[in-house]
């Protein structure tokens, strides 16, 4: 099915209704933001059943989006690049200028909900056409919107997907925007939302705007078009509540004698995926392997930032070991390594990351990580509420990530539809998926329908 049968019906710009709030707010970018300069826009999408035609789907979504953008005005801004001629560098900030977000209305009349939800967990290749703008990188925000929405009307469903500039918002902020948008749409009017709290500048001793060598801002090639890299595929692995409890208990029992730290469900699952993927990745035993996890620094910096302040307040940090150690030491040790990595993130480590980054800006073009199959990236979070996003005709049926930032080893972790369950959308080379699906030790803790 070429293009998944997705046809563009219309493309428009949606601006905030009232632009009074944003004024000419400038958002200065921190090292945590700028380290994402060469990242693709993250893409997420929610699958719904189809509303009645008298719901006026497209006009209601657009009208409510305009109201939501009034509150979440940074998404309607643009990235601005300034040149620092004195040292041949550039700087960036976000100008909240109400330029607007892009709204794409599409149709895929031959695709039904059941085509999306394959019982074996495979993600159909056509799904990539249901996401907007899959080649935008953060640095492109100087000329393209910081938020793009795509609404695709299917035979018996609707897919609402979006992509956004990760320097503007992290998952916490993105989902809070999405929640507000859905509430405005379902209630049919704006409501008294408290004004957005922007993160402000919280890095004492670091001057802004930060200077970045011009060479680091030249666009790197699209991550998926390197001809030397094998094609990746996507697969959904479901962890039932019982799978999760078992894995967590197994991990904790293995390390109970050596540590008084408890590993979390997410750490146990991530460790299980990390070990299982590396076991089949063909990585030699002495080679280093990285498991990159996302750390939210809102409550780690001191004084802490407001819990729900808006912006990008995350960074990626890596657990590193050799393939040999990872595989020989067992699940518990791998999960404990992730647990220790998380708890070692303090004001001090945030500060050091920021200072080191400013002092030596480099390797931005490597993007999300290594393309040789030795890296796992755990993106998104099961803490983000997905299934309460009701735009007025019912809750979502499923969530999916789009193909951006794809490397073999990208895991998007989502809340599962059944309470307490988790879905992982894994991007992996085809042969790694085939081997995982035949691996008894892996499958013991995963539910394949
Ligand atoms: C926009 O601003 C005007 C004037 O402040 C106000 O009367 C109106 O209610 C606002 N509209 C919305 C949708 O907030
Ligand atoms: C936390 O780090 C910031 C710099 O990023 C520093 O100014 C501040 O004093 C630190 N806080 C504490 C309590 O050490």
Automatic annotation (TrEMBL):
It holds the Pfam family Transferase. One of its GO terms (molecular function) is transferase activity. Keywords: Transferase. It comes from the Eukaryota. Gene3D superfamilies: Chloramphenicol acetyltransferase-like domain. Transmembrane segments: none annotated. InterPro entries: CAT-like_dom_sf, Sec_Metabolite_Acyltrans. PANTHER family: ANTHRANILATE N-HYDROXYCINNAMOYL_BENZOYLTRANSFERASE-LIKE PROTEIN, FAMILY REGULATORY PROTEIN, PUTATIVE (AFU_ORTHOLOGUE AFUA_3G14730)-RELATED. This is HXXXD-type acyl-transferase family protein.
């Amino acid at each position: 099915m070429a293009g998944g049968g997705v046809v563009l019906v219309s493309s428009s710009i949606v601006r905030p209704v009232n632009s009074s709030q944003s004024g000419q707010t400038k958002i200065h970018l921190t090292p945590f933001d700028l380290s994402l300069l060469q990242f693709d826009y993250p893409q997420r999408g929610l699958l719904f059943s189809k509303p009645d035609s008298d719901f006026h789907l497209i006009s209601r979504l657009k009208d409510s989006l305009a109201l939501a953008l009034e509150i979440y005005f940074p998404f309607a801004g643009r990235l601005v690049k300034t040149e620092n001629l004195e040292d041949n560098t550039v700087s960036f900030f976000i100008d909240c200028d109400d330029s607007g977000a892009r709204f794409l209305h599409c149709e895929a009349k031959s695709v039904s909900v059941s085509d999306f939800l394959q019982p074996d967990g495979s993600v159909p290749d056509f799904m990539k056409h249901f996401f907007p703008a899959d080649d935008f990188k953060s640095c492109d925000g100087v000329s393209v919107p910081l938020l793009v929405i795509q609404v695709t009307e299917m035979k018996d469903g609707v897919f609402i997907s979006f992509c956004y500039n990760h320097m503007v918002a992290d998952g916490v902020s993105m989902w809070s925007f999405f929640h507000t948008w859905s509430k405005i749409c379902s209630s049919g009017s704006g409501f008294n939302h408290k004004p957005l709290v922007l993160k402000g500048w919280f890095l004492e001793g670091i001057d802004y705007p930060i200077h970045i060598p011009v060479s680091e801002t030249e666009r790197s090639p699209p991550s998926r078009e390197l001809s030397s890299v094998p094609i990746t595929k996507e697969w959904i692995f479901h962890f039932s509540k019982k799978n999760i409890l078992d894995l967590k208990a197994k991990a904790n029992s293995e390390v109970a004698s050596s540590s008084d730290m408890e590993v979390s469900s997410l750490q146990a699952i991530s460790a299980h995926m990390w070990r299982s993927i590396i076991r089949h990745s063909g990585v030699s035993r002495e080679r280093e392997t990285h498991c990159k996890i996302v750390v939210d620094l809102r409550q780690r910096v001191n004084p802490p930032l407001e819990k729900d302040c808006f912006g990008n307040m995350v960074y990626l940090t890596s657990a590193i070991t050799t393939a040999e150690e990872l595989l020989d030491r067992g699940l518990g040790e791998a999960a404990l390594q992730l647990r220790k990595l998380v708890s070692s993130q303090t004001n001090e480590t945030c500060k050091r990351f920021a200072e080191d980054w400013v002092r030596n800006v480099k390797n931005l073009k490597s993007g999300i990580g290594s393309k040789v199959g030795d890296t796992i990236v755990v993106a998104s979070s099961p803490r983000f509420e997905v299934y309460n996003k009701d735009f007025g005709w019912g809750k979502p049926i499923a969530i999916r990530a789009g193909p951006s930032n794809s490397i073999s080893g990208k895991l998007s972790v989502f809340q599962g539809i059944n309470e307490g369950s988790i879905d992982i959308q894994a991007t992996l080379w085809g042969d790694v998926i085939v081997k995982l699906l035949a691996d008894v030790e892996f499958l013991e803790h995963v539910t394949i329908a």
